[in-house]
Amino acid sequence: MEGKAALAQTLRDYPGGVLLVSHDRQLISESCNRFWLIDSAGLTEWHSLEEVYARLQAVAPPGQSARFAEYTRRG
Question: What is the pTM of this model?
């Protein structure tokens, strides 16, 4: 098992909570089952990474939306 896959499996199997900060969408998707977005509106729980990205794109400042859409499209 490769390092990233082993890490994702270990995080999934861990019985406690983990705060994971990463730019690696694959690692996040494979190891997380709940997502919290903290912004000026407070804390919101999401159930999929796609929901989080949709929210971030919806509130992106003008000019950022195109770059954000490209980033999320690339995965």
Answer: 0.62
Q: Residue 7's closest CA among 31, 26, 36, 25?
A: 31
Phi and psi angles of residue 39, each rounded to the nearest 5 degrees, phi first: -145, -165
Tokens representing residue 9 in the block: 């499996």
C-beta contacts of 27-36 below 8 A and 24+ residues apart: 30/5, 31/7
Instruction: Specify whether 42 is located in the same domain as 70.
Output: yes
Segments forming the whole domain that contains residue 3:
1-33
Q: Could you give the number of structural domains in the chain?
A: 2
The model's pLDDT over 40-66, given as tens digits with 9 standing for 90+, comes to 889 989 888 888 888 877 877 877 766
